[in-house]
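Annex B. Sample input.
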Amino acid sequence: MKGIKYTFSAEPWQYGTSGGWYFVTLPIALSEEIRTIFKSEEEGWGRLKATARVGKSEWKSAIWFDTKTNAYSLPLKAEIRAAENLSAGKRVDVIIWI
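Annex B, continued. Sample output.
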């Protein structure tokens, strides 16, 4: 069992300069719901284990809560970005299970 399923759309963004990590930010309302339910399971730095899917690619990952934006962010590994042809600013549908 993967857990509770959440679906959203977001635009990937790159942290910092060239070579920086790529992320998608979960919508604030969705982040609030997840944090209400799972805050007690967060690890250091607001880390919460998750399984993610974009297109046909699925991977084990984590989401991190950002207190500045009051939202979780999901990192997008280079192999996932390549397999799914993802780029910054190109909206993508995401499924996560917590």
